């Protein structure tokens, strides 16, 4: 029998080149798939991080809105407290002014000497202006001395005095100012405070 001899007529280098080319293309395909997988994984991780951050932002915005609401409630409570404190102060001042009004009018009567008659009394702040008629100028001076000696009045000043004659009697019309003080409040502005008159 004859043995067949096989002769490879193909160039072995060409076959090897083709094989390497196939291996290279396969490796390139695997690398491209790997790169695509990494890109997809990166995009997924990025999207997940964005979603997570957006969820955190929503949570923070909700917390900020709640805190803003609480701050508004606190400000409303502080305003209510300030209003209550103001009302309490007004009530305290009214309670104190009750006795001051009594003292004020009591001292008006006590300081008035005989022969002096008041025709009007006007109070503006701490200053009281009185108009009156006196039997003589000396009676007006006595009235001013009495006002100055009172613990509730201070600094009497004669604004105007003019003599009038009605028949056989002479009289003096006068206007004078004096300040109202409160001896019960020595810590108030030099120990002085107004006694309010209606």
TrEMBL record:
Transmembrane portions of the chain: 24-46
Keywords assigned: Coiled coil, Membrane, Transmembrane, Transmembrane helix
Pfam families named in the record: PilN
Parts forming coiled coils: 50-94
Full protein name: PilN domain-containing protein
Species of provenance: Spectribacter hydrogenoxidans
């Amino acid at each position: 029998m004859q043995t067949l001899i096989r002769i490879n007529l193909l160039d072995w280098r060409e076959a090897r080149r083709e094989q390497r080319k196939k291996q290279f293309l396969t490796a390139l395909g695997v690398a491209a798939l790997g790169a695509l997988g990494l890109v997809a994984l990166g995009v997924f991780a990025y999207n997940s991080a964005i979603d997570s951050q957006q969820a955190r932002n929503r949570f923070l915005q909700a917390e900020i809105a709640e805190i803003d609401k609480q701050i508004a409630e606190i400000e409303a409570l502080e305003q209510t407290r300030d209003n209550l404190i103001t009302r309490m102060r007004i009530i305290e001042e009214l309670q104190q002014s009750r006795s001051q009004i009594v003292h004020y009018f009591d001292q008006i009567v006590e300081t008035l000497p005989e022969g002096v008659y008041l025709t009007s009394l006007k109070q503006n702040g701490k200053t009281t202006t009185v108009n009156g008629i006196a039997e003589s100028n000396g009676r007006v001076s006595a009235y001013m001395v009495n006002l100055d000696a009172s613990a509730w009045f201070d600094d009497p000043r004669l604004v105007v005095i003019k003599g009038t004659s009605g028949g056989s009697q002479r009289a003096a019309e006068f206007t004078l100012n004096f300040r109202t003080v409160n001896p019960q409040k020595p810590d108030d502005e030099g120990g002085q405070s107004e006694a309010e008159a209606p």
